[in-house]
Design goal:
The chain contains five helices and five strands; from the N terminus they run H-H-E-E-E-E-H-H-E-H. By secondary structure, the chain is of the alpha+beta class. It has a five-stranded mixed β-sheet, covered by helices on one side. A hairpin with a 2-residue loop joins strand 2 and strand 3. Helix 1 runs parallel beside helix 3.
């Protein structure tokens, strides 16, 4: 998978672009990404410091179940995150209000 189609690489790039917004995120937030066509990974924001890790986190704030193709389109701005959720392309579990935190970071 090229970097342009690799969800992990794309989320890393988006995280670097959003560094200025991270200071507004208080506490610890963990966003777990899972899909059948990529290795699971999670994004942790700890009082403004961001880390991205491959694997699974035992108790994430929010789990995002999304196929890799859809995640790439979301990260590239080709699909609206809210519409993707409402149409069933994305499944969320956990603290749904924190989905807005994630959306603001990746769509800034």
């Amino acid at each position: 998978m090229s970097t342009g189609n690799d969800p992990y690489a794309l989320i890393e790039a988006k995280a670097k672009e959003a560094e200025g917004l991270l200071s507004s995120v208080k506490g610890v937030k963990v966003f777990q990404f899972k899909g059948n066509d990529y290795e699971p990974f999670y994004v942790m924001i700890n009082n403004g410091a961001l880390s991205i890790n491959k694997g699974t986190y035992s108790n994430p704030t929010l789990t995002i179940q999304v196929p890799g193709e859809i995640l790439v389109k979301l990260l590239n701005g080709q699909i609206d995150p809210v519409q993707a959720y409402l149409s069933g392309l994305i499944k969320l579990s956990g603290d749904l209000m924190e989905a807005m935190t994630l959306i603001s970071l990746v769509t800034h």
